[in-house]
Write a structure and sequence with these properties.
The protein is of the alpha+beta class. It has 2 domains: about 10-90, Arc Repressor Mutant, subunit A, CATH 1.10.10; about 95-128, no CATH class. It has 3 helices and 6 strands; from the N terminus they run H-E-E-H-H-E-E-E-E. The strands form 3 sheets. It has a two-stranded antiparallel ribbon with strand order 1-2. A two-stranded antiparallel sheet has the order 3-4. The chain has a two-stranded antiparallel sheet with strand order 5-6.
Length: about 130
Amino acid sequence: MGKSSPTKWQRKDIPAKALIDLVDRLYNIPRFWGVAAGFPQLRYSTGASLREICEFWSDIPPKVLQAKLKQLIDQNFLDGCACGCSSRITVIHETDLPIMELVDELNGTLVRRQVRIPRSMYHSVRYK
């Protein structure tokens, strides 16, 4: 783990890819909700919560997982709230990034091209 203590988990010890994959797998999972008129009722998850992530990685302290989730949200790899409230955390895939249209002038003619916004600008884009 860390240099100071081999038994303490730190945020840097958690691989970002593994946590992103876990959050992605916890999306759209059918969950038993109850029985109505003799039929099982299912609800599908809309993302992962801190509690669910802690259930899968029970050997890592929740505060460390929370810090890593916050870091990935700040880096725009995940979307949601890492505070532990009922908010759901989801993965921001490359295809989820909005497309912007650029207009360039090339040899006196206007050329339009569409590009995805950079991941760093994801939360700064305002939708109208």
